[in-house]
Amino acid sequence: MLYYTIIFLVVALVAGVLGFGGIASAASGIAKALFVIFLILFVLSLVAGRGWA
């Protein structure tokens, strides 16, 4: 999932440099959403890995 976040971030940066505002906005929104999901899953895996003892 982090792979897709990085891909959408790169697409947003390239589209922003080339002047495609709508595409850059959509790609950066997707990248932000995927990053938040990845961050939540990462924290959950850290908590689950510690155990409940």
Protein architecture, described:
With 53 residues, the chain is mostly helical. It has one domain (2-44). 89% of the residues lie in helices and 0% in strands. The longest helix has 30 residues, at 21-50. The model has no long low-confidence stretch (mean pLDDT 80).
List low-confidence stretches.
Answer: none
Distance between the termini: 30 Å
**How much beta, percentage-wise?**
under 5%
Mean pLDDT, to the nearest integer, reads: 80
**Residue share in helix:** over 70%
What attributes does this structure have?
53 residues, 89% helix, rod-shaped
Task: Please give the structural blueprint.
Blueprint: H1 2-18, H2 21-50
Helix pairs in contact: 1-2
Summarize the structure.
This protein is mainly alpha-helical and 53 residues long.
